[in-house]
Structures are given as C-alpha cells and as structure tokens.
C-alpha cells in the first residue's frame, strides 16, 4: 500500500502515519518525489484496508499497490528516479556511458584504458577486481590490488568507478573503493548479498540473471530498496536462450517494459549481450534508441591480449567510433550524452 500525503501535510502528520504503520507491525518507507510526499508500506501478508489511513489528518489517499515489487514500482513513484553516482546523474536526461576493461590486469592497462574512454566521452570507468568465472582455472582478478588501481585511475582522470562485488565478505571493501557497486548476473538472486547492499551508502548496478524474468529481476531490486538503499539501477546484459550464434540474447524488449513498470534507471550492456566485438556498436545504438539511460561497454587497449572477454572488448579507436554513432542516435531521441 502507498499512503499519499496532502501537499499541506505537516511533519507531525507524516510522523503520525509512520507511527500508525509501525503500530500495525509493518514497515514504512519514505518515497522521495518532487510532486508529492508518500509513504510505502511493506510487510503485510494480505491486502490492507485503505480506511486505516484515509481518515488520518494530512492524508490525501491510501492506494493499494498491485505489483509484488512494491517500492520499485511506478505505482508507488510515477517519476523517474535519478541515481547520484558521485555527482553523475544516472537516470536523468543525459545518457551515461561506462567503459573500460572486463578485468583489471595492471596499472598501465587500466590507466591507458581510462584516459582513452574519457577522451571519447565516458564518465565512468568499469573494471573488475573480483572476477567470478565459470571455470575455476581462469583469471579471477587482482582483488584489493585491482581496487587500488581503479582508485588510482579515478584520481588521474576524474572518472567515477564501477566495479563488481562478488560476495558479502568483500562487499565493504569494494564499497570503500567504488562509486557504483555492480552486482553480476550470477549474483542477482544472492539474497544475503542483496540485503547487505541495502545497508551500504553506495549506489548499486544490478545486472539481470542469465535465466531471470523481468519480474524476478525487479523483485531482486526490491530486496535492496526494502533494506534501505533506494539508489539502484538495473542493467540488461543478455539472457540465455536456444540461440548459440551470439554469447547471449540481448533482450532490448526489457528496456521499454522496465520503463513502464519501474522508476529505476535502466542501463544496457551490449558487450555481454552479444559477445561479438564487431556487433557491439550496433547493439549500443539500438539500446539508446530503445530508451536506455546508460551503456556499459568493455574496452581494452589490446583486446587480443585480454585475460578475460577479449572477444567482445572494443579497442579505444572502436569505442570512439561507437560514441560518435551513439551521439547521433541520442540526438534523434532528444537526449544529450
């Protein structure tokens, strides 16, 4: 349920509604918005009677929320959420581009990549210090040393850092270094990790699981928001289908569907989505045309020597070409980049 307050409601009246919710053994959640003050309610097993709140001073109306993902639903918040990533607004008019290598391999590699992607127009540097891999024998990342290299690149270039947290044990360390904490596809339903993400003070980029429905994905986001962190963005990175000509099937249907269902920003990862370097620019263009708020692209100074995902990583020159193309599409749909 959502309790919508009148524009004239006093702080004391809002507090009274919050206390009423708690007295019922339920959890109140303030919903930030420019147009109205509202309080979401979670924890109820069945439907609540709106009359519990309708007659309270300062209340405009109490609305039942039909979606199971209550707090991330557009029923609860009609306007788009803008996630502040260390001063970069994700989900606003401008399309945010994140770029860099799949894995942090060395100081020289990351600094070169950071300078190149910034020159092309990216505002966030991506790079994995912890790399969950299908095979236990593949490169697993440099751990904290990798995080330190990313921090050094941020200091040198001004780019914000997005990097992956793999588990609860290392989450605090990653959050200390990251500006945006990425949760990889295989951890989308790691519920212990999702709950802890609700307690950190950093925004979260939640990737879609390879076999997850949109509803399951939004419920995963609900875990983070319900545990106290409303700064969540969603990342479509392709799903597993019967098709084997590409690495995954990039579900661009998800972008407009998500925009209708949730107020959270939507990012697209064309690199993992298709997994073929030559076709990444086309999918990036399509993502912007579909309404994505951001892109996350793998860029490596020397893809043929990359320790992970070299086959889908762009060279700096190819990334600069992608950015030129994406700017044209963004302009056509009325968005800066």
Q: Could you describe the 3D structure shown?
A:
It contains eleven helices and 14 strands. The chain is α/β, with parallel strands linked by helices and about 325 residues long. It folds into two domains: about 1-65, 2-Layer Sandwich (Alpha-Beta Plaits), CATH 3.30.70.1140; about 85-330, Aldolase class I (TIM Barrel). The strands form three sheets. An eight-stranded parallel beta barrel has the order 7-8-9-10-11-12-13-14, surrounded by six helices. It has a four-stranded antiparallel beta sheet with strand order 2-3-1-4. The relative contact order is 0.13. The mean pLDDT is about 95.
Explain briefly what this protein structure is:
The chain is of the alpha/beta class and 337 residues long.
Secondary structure elements and their pairing?
Elements: E1 2-5, H1 11-23, E2 27-31, E3 38-42, H2 51-54, E4 59-63, E5 83-85, E6 88-90, E7 96-100, H3 107-120, E8 124-126, H4 144-157, E9 160-164, H5 168-177, E10 180-183, H6 191-197, E11 204-207, H7 214-226, E12 232-236, H8 254-261, E13 266-268, H9 270-274, H10 280-290, E14 294-298, H11 316-332
Parallel strand pairs: 7-8, 7-14, 8-9, 9-10, 10-11, 11-12, 12-13, 13-14
Antiparallel strand pairs: 1-3, 1-4, 2-3, 5-6
Helix pairs in contact: 3-4, 3-11, 6-7, 10-11
């Amino acid at each position: 349920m959502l309790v919508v307050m009148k524009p004239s409601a006093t702080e004391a009246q809002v507090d009274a509604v919050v206390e009423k919710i708690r007295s019922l053994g339920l959890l109140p959640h303030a919903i930030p918005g420019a147009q109205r003050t509202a309080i979401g309610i979670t924890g109820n097993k069945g439907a609540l009677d709106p009359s519990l709140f309708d007659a309270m001073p300062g209340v405009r109306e109490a609305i039942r929320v039909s979606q199971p993902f209550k707090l991330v639903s557009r029923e609860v918040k009609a306007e788009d959420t803008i996630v502040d990533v260390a001063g970069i607004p994700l989900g606003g008019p401008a399309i945010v581009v994140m770029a860099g290598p799949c894995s942090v391999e060395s100081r020289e590699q990351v600094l070169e990549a950071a300078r190149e992607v910034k020159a092309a127009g990216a505002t966030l540097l991506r790079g994995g210090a912890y790399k969950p891999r299908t095979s236990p024998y593949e490169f697993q990342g440099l751990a904290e040393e990798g995080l330190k290299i990313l921090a050094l690149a941020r200091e040198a270039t001004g780019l914000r850092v997005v990097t992956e947290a793999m588990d609860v044990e290392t989450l605090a360390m990653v959050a200390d270094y990251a500006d945006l904490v990425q949760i990889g596809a295989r951890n989308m339903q790691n519920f212990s990790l999702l709950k802890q993400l609700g307690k950190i003070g950093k925004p979260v980029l939640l990737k879609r699981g390879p076999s997850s429905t949109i509803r399951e994905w939004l419920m995963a986001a609900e875990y983070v928001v319900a545990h106290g962190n409303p700064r969540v963005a969603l990342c479509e990175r392709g799903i597993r289908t019967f098709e084997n000509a590409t690495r995954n099937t990039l579900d661009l249907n998800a972008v407009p569907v998500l925009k209708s269902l949730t107020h959270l920003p939507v990012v697209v990862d064309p690199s993992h989505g298709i997994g073929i370097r030559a076709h990444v620019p086309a999918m990036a263009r399509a993502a912007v045309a579909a309404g994505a708020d951001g892109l996350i692209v793998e860029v490596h100074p020397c893809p043929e020597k990359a320790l992970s995902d070299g086959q889908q990583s762009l060279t700096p020159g190819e990334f600069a070409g992608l950015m030129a193309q994406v700017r044209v599409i963004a302009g056509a749909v009325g968005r800066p980049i």
